[in-house]
Amino acid sequence: MSSSRHILLINPTITSQRHARFPLAVMSLSAALEGRHSSSIIDGNVDRDFIATAARMVEQGQVDCVGVTVMGGPQLSTAIAVSKAVREQRPGVPIIWGGAFPTVCPEATVNVPYVDYAVRAQGEDTLVELLDALPAQRSELLAAIAGLTWRLDGRAVHNRDRVFSTASLNRMLPYDSLDNPRQYLTRTYLGERTAGYQAALGCRFRCTFCGVAAMYRGKMALPPVARLEQDLGFLKNRLGVDAIQFYDHNFFDREVDMVPLLEVMAKYALPWWCFARSDALVNLSERSWALVKNSRLRMAYIGAESPSDWLLHDIRKGTRSDQTLAAVETCRGHGVVPELSFMLAPPQDPEGETERTFEFIRMIKRLHPATEVMIYIYTPLPQRHDSKDAAALRMQSEMRDCAGNPVVFPRSADEWAEPQWRAYWCHQDAPWLSARLRRRIVDFTTVLGCRFPTIMDIRASAWGKTALRALASWRYRFQRYDDPWELRVSRRLIRQWDPRVMSL
Ligand code: B12
Ligand code: SF4
User: Fold this and answer.
1) What is the C-alpha to C-alpha distance for residues 405 and 501, in angstroms, rounded to an integer?
2) Is residue 130 in some structural domain?
3) SS3 state of residue 40
4) What is the per-residue pLDDT across 478-493, written as a single tens digit (0 to 9) for each?
5) pLDDT tens digits for range 74-130
6) Would you say the CB of residue 379 lies under 6 angstroms from ligand 1?
7) Helix axes 435-451, 350-367, angle to 10 degrees
8) For ligand 1, is residue 454 a contact (CB within 6 Å)?
9) How many domains are contained in the chain?
10) What is the pTM of this model?
11) Is any atom of ligand 1 closer than 6 Å to the C-beta of 44?
12) Which structural domain, as residue segments, surrounds residue 463?
């Protein structure tokens, strides 16, 4: 067996310290290395000087290699900064990136001098095999590691995909390896000490726009009941957790398999939030809804995406707009707040779809005003050059910017970190949006957000929210969304927060 290596696992800053949640990716990797290789964790969400900390540890010679978890968007910039600092400090230390960004853009990841390896999709087994292979540096060993992208003679090599693994469902996360795990428990509208937690792996759907589909390719597995019970017991009794935000990609899977998990959750009765699909919610039996009620589900985030069934079909969502409406009714009937996310301005018909979505949102607000609404721009994922998805490749080749030129995606991590592509990754902007449409979406979002302040915002005062509601009501009623300057100013004064950026 090869010798043991020490890896420094880094979660670069992506959010404020107040919103920091357990860095699940690096914790899961650390658990998988146990007994074979050793690791330390740096979390840039809590260590605000994490680049200096990482450089110091590398400089002191304590680490054999560095692993960085990277989501596109704001985390890309902090991942680049820490990787450059490590490279500068010790050029010989290998740097490995994994997570959502390298999975979707492996070529762009290794197209920069400060990343040596990109790990695509689930990372546990790939990382163990890579650490085993690193000392020898033999290309035939590297070529055999599934899920790895690396450079050979200056060219990116994409090894075969790794098959879906359920092994991590049987490992408990190393909460004790974090500095003070309780600092990750946050006050939210769910509770005083809310934890981010993931029970199941993957999602059996393959929506074309979704990073989860790129990572799990339609595979999903639920945790053993005993594992969920052990984790909830630990979180509640040892750490004092009193609410849970489930990060499961799509919480309600097949009802028959979910019931035993819901029974455990009903036993702990910790208020919770999750991602769910409208079709699953409307088809849930009353018996299961009773369990959901006892388990204290507070809010379900539903990818409504669009009011147009042709688009839902095109993106392979597998749900219909009538199911979105039915899910809103069902949630209301069971005391759960539906949180609907929409993707505006698809390249096929940016203006028309946006206006239709505004109308649909207004209809939903009439039906159930407490519905939360999250507005994003439709930004399809870049396809890998070797993608076999002919429909997605065709759609990508047909994408045009406002001037009618083909949309060309960045070729390196540095280019992806530029402001316009960072906004693309965050679903906030796209090259085919005209300035007028961009403005209109921002204005509508402002008026809607002020007319219906989110209950997730526990920082803004009750009077502040009432004032916003009153100020915005005429604009919303008469659909006068243009340039709501008075709302922008008031929002800033009241310090309203944006759950799209900060989560709960
Ligand atoms: C928690 C979370 C956040 C937190 C981050 C908390 C943190 N990390 O400290 C917050 C709320 C800040 C966040 C923000 C964003 N997020 Co986010 N987030 C998630 C969420 C719900 C869970 C991530 C997680 O912890 N998973 C559990 C771990 C175990 O899985 P994992 O991260 O995939 O890690 C595995 C592999 O990727 C790999 N791996 C990961 N890192 C590494 C590193 C190495 C070295 C190796 C070898 C392997 C490896 O191995 C791990 C184990 O198998 C996911 C959805 C989901 N359920 O995954 C979305 C998700 C990752 N987010 C996403 C996005 C787009 C964003 C945003 C950029 C934009 C947005 N609008 O949401 C924003 C940024 C907002 C901003 N600041 O402006 C997308 C990514 C899609 C994509 N194609 O990249 C996801 C998939 C949601 C989705 N369905 O679209 N997010
Ligand atoms: S159902 Fe949700 S998580 Fe699953 S692939 Fe579609 S959008 Fe992604």
Assistant:
1) 31
2) yes
3) strand
4) 999 999 999 999 888 8
5) 999 999 999 999 999 999 999 999 999 999 999 999 999 999 999 999 999 999 999
6) no
7) 10
8) no
9) 3
10) 0.96
11) no
12) 434-496
